[in-house]
UniProtKB/TrEMBL annotation:
It comes from Viridothelium virens. Gene3D superfamilies: 3.30.420.40, Exopolyphosphatase. Domain 2 (3.30.420.150). Residues 632-641 have a biased composition (Acidic residues). GO terms for cellular component: Golgi apparatus; membrane. Residues 583-612, 625-747 are annotated as: Disordered. Belongs to the GDA1/CD39 NTPase family. The active site is at 145 (proton acceptor). It comes from the Eukaryota. This is Nucleoside diphosphatase. Residues 583-598 have a biased composition (Basic residues). Residues 651-668, 696-709 have a biased composition (Polar residues). Keywords: ATP-binding, Hydrolase, Membrane, Nucleotide-binding, Transmembrane, Transmembrane helix. The chain crosses the membrane at residues 542-561. One of its GO terms (biological process) is UDP catabolic process.
Length: 747
């Protein structure tokens, strides 16, 4: 396993399933990189935009065809995960599919069938870690979803790792969390000290673990309101309209812009539909915003009995919220409803009820024709279409009622609230780690570029569970149970969790490499190879360093030049192991296309010795002597032969014309070297075969570098009708068949 750990979570919501990929450093590497302060922090979770993929519709639509959910719904999501996780890490990557409100509405038998089909398909088609289907593939209750969201929000805002920077007073440093989807809404917060002691049995004990293995515990209240999501609330609202006007051919809707006619589900009326033909009553917009706000209030069901005081909505118990220290952030519909239209040009503006109500009133008072013109001109941005605009007024009224009349968020801008008056622009988010949100409520979507999603909270909890507990903080025991494991359970006054839910099992027995040279697909490298070689204790450090040095030496060797390479090669290779070669004489008309290999180019000393070496070391001359030529072959190379003139080539076989020897030269015959006292002329003496001739004049030996050679014991001889051998680099040296013949030496 490499330095990165990966995790996959599929958020199976009511409208679709969204896949998220996360990664974090394994604990060994995280401890190595962490400073003294970072050791007391939670694991750092990372994600990327390209690691997210959504598939529609939701898995709840497969309730009566569970066998098809894998092939028709999960296949592209799983393929996306496999594509973006390093191949060697897939088998070390856990996968979770956690279903929410949509699946909660299905009968239990259909829920079970869909989940079993998902688990079987995932196990059959992938190698992800999936040891326990009941733990990894499940429908989670709404309060668990809210708890994960609370973890995600505080993790991104810094409420966990820098409590001193988020001191809200009364020894409180965390933020409340609000989430609203299509079917349900959640709330999660840590009550003040008084309420925590008073309602201990109503809280959840949450335990996480920091990088150094120390436990970090929080007591959190969380609950959910099923049916209080935006879509479910609208369905209840339309039913109220029908009950109020059962015989009406058209149902007047104050939450729709004036003049807009839609089906009861909000879709556009199509020609030939039941609504178009008068069979079913459509909704007709009246554009009465104040009436819309009044008609949505009863949906809170505040009149439902409250068996355990205090309660907020629908008779559900919630401890008293202290807004002096409980500052809430809202995601999902809380963000979209406040920002898609009404804060389009002020995306980072804090929520202000007075300003928000004025903008909603201005929009919802327009007739539908004017709104359509605004959509065509993109007055509210590119993302606002007719469907978004048609539902905007209802969602705004529902959000206002839920926030202020339901949860009790102070009416900022209308009431005198302590800590109000903060700017609330982007500066608030940027400086959240310095002073935090001081407004009672702030809608958010991303914090420092990361989406606030409950799936992140789940992965933070899982990553923390993979850190071995510090024995000094766990009573010296490494056994993981409800007393020291990461997860959550029912809190008691004694502080021991019951009905404990583990976050994903015990820490996996996987190797914790400190380094990893592979960081995902192509283009995702972090340059960690330097750390692997020089700054780690990895078992790969020494072999990697040796391999690196070998590559470095090879590069230096190749750059040092041919002559230095040859000299170096001859020094390290004994003479008896050097390979020598004798080049056969090529006959006239025969062209051998001998090509030099890579080894001979890089290590020239391993092939035939160079002519520089021959001239400097006469001992190797014997290795290069040519075999005697038969008389008939010798005649073919006569200077007077027409065929030789027509077919001259470069190399040793190229015939040369020399009509006269110059004084001071030597001739070489078959019986050895014979110095000449004066100019030589005439034919080759009988019985002597020419071996090797060098066409060098006396002046040539006077040049620098050649004078020492003329004093050698082996005096080189130049005989008529012999063949001239070139120095290295000369055009006559054998390189390729395309080199032109050397020029004849003419007296």
């Amino acid at each position: 396993m490499g330095k990165w750990r990966y995790g996959v979570i599929l958020d199976a919501g009511s409208s679709g399933t969204r896949l998220h990929i996360y990664r974090w450093l394994n604990n060994a590497r995280a401890r190595q990189d962490a400073g003294a302060e970072d050791l007391h922090s939670l694991p750092r979770i990372e994600t990327k935009k390209k690691w997210i993929k959504k598939s529609k519709p939701g898995i709840s639509t497969f309730g009566d065809k569970a066998a098809l959910v894998g092939k028709e719904h999960l296949a592209p999501l799983l393929a996306h995960a496999v594509e973006h996780i390093p191949e060697q890490e897939v088998e070390n990557t856990p996968i979770f599919l956690l279903a929410t409100a949509g699946m909660r509405l299905l009968p239990e038998s259909q829920q079970k069938a869909v989940l079993q089909s998902i688990c079987a398909y995932t196990r059959a088609t992938t190698n992800f870690i999936l040891p326990d289907c009941d733990l990894h593939i499940q429908v989670i209750p709404g309060d668990t979803e809210g708890l994960y969201g609370w973890i995600a929000a505080n993790y991104l805002l810094g409420g966990f790792d820098q409590p001193d920077s988020h001191d809200h007073g009364k020894d409180h440093h965390t933020y409340g969390f609000l989430d609203m989807g299509g079917a349900s809404a959640q709330i999660a917060f840590a009550p003040n000290q008084t309420e925590t002691e008073k309602h201990a049995e109503d809280l959840k004990l949450l335990r996480m673990r920091t990088i150094d293995g120390a436990a970090s515990e929080y007591k959190v209240f969380t609950t959910t309101w099923l049916g209080f999501g935006a879509n479910q609330a609208r369905e209840r609202y339309v039913k109220e309209l029908e009950d109020a006007s059962p015989d009406a051919q058209e149902l007047p809707d104050p939450c729709l812009p004036a003049g807009l006619r839609v089906k009861k589900n909000g879709d556009v009326i199509e020609p030939g539909s039941a609504e178009d033909e008068g069979v079913r009553s459509p909704l007709i917009g009246t554009g009465q915003w104040e009436e819309c706000l009044r008609r949505t209030y009863p949906l809170l069901e505040k009149d439902v009995p409250c068996p355990n005081e205090p309660c907020l909505v629908n008779g559900a118990h919630v401890p008293t919220i202290d807004f002096d220290v409980n500052h809430f952030v809202g995601v999902s519909e809380y963000w979209h409803t406040t920002h898609e239209i009404f804060e389009m040009d002020k995306a980072d503006k804090a929520y202000d009820l007075h300003t928000y109500q004025n903008r909603v009133l201005d929009f919802c008072s327009k007739d539908w024709t004017a709104i359509e013109r605004g959509i065509s001109k993109q007055s509210w941005g590119k993302k606002v279409d007719e469907s978004t605009a048609a539902h905007a007024c209802f969602k705004a009224s529902w959000l206002i009622n839920m926030l202020h009349n339901g949860i009790g968020i102070p009416r900022l801008g209308l009431e005198d609230v302590q800590h109000s008056g903060v700017n609330g622009t982007k500066e608030v988010i940027d400086k959240a780690k310095d002073k935090g949100f001081l407004d009672p409520f702030q809608p958010i979507n991303k914090i420092h570029g990361t989406e606030v999603s409950w799936t992140l909270g789940k992965m933070v909890l899982y990553a923390a569970s993979q850190i071995p507990p510090n024995t000094s903080t766990s009573s010296g025991s490494q056994t993981l149970d409800a007393s020291n494991a990461v997860g959550f359970g029912t809190n008691t006054r004694a502080g021991v969790a019951t009905a404990f839910q583990f976050s994903g099992g015990n820490p996996l027995n996987l190797p914790n490499d400190l380094t990893d040279n592979y960081d995902g697909p192509a283009g995702d490298d972090d340059g960690d190879w330097l750390d692997t070689l020089f700054h780690s204790n990895s078992s790969r450090r020494i072999p990697g360093f040796i391999f690196f040095m070998l590559i470095l030496c090879l590069i230096v060797f190749l750059l040092c030049g041919r002559d230095r390479r040859t000299s170096f090669w001859r020094k390290i290779i004994p003479k008896r192991f050097r390979r020598t070669a004798t080049r056969p004489v090529r006959r006239s008309g025969t062209f051998s296309k001998r090509r030099r290999g890579l080894a001979s180019k890089l290590f020239p000393g391993s092939g035939s010795p160079s002519y520089e070496r021959v001239l400097e070391n006469g001992e190797e001359m014997e290795d290069l002597r040519l075999s005697p030529l038969p008389p008939e072959d010798f005649e073919n190379f006569s200077d007077d032969s027409e065929s030789s003139k027509a077919a001259r080539t470069s190399g040793l076989a190229t015939p040369q014309i020399q009509t006269k020897a110059t004084p001071g030269t030597a001739q070489m015959y078959s019986d050895g070297f014979s110095p000449l006292a004066g100019p030589a002329s005439g034919p080759v003496p009988a019985g002597m075969t020419p071996r090797l001739g060098l066409g060098l004049s006396q002046n040539a030996f006077e040049k620098s570098g050649l004078s020492s050679r003329s004093e050698s014991k082996e005096k080189l001889t130049l005989a008529p009708n012999t063949f001239r051998v070139s120095r290295p680099g000369s055009p006559t040296k054998l390189r390729s068949p395309g080199i032109l013949p050397v020029k004849e030496v003419v007296d």
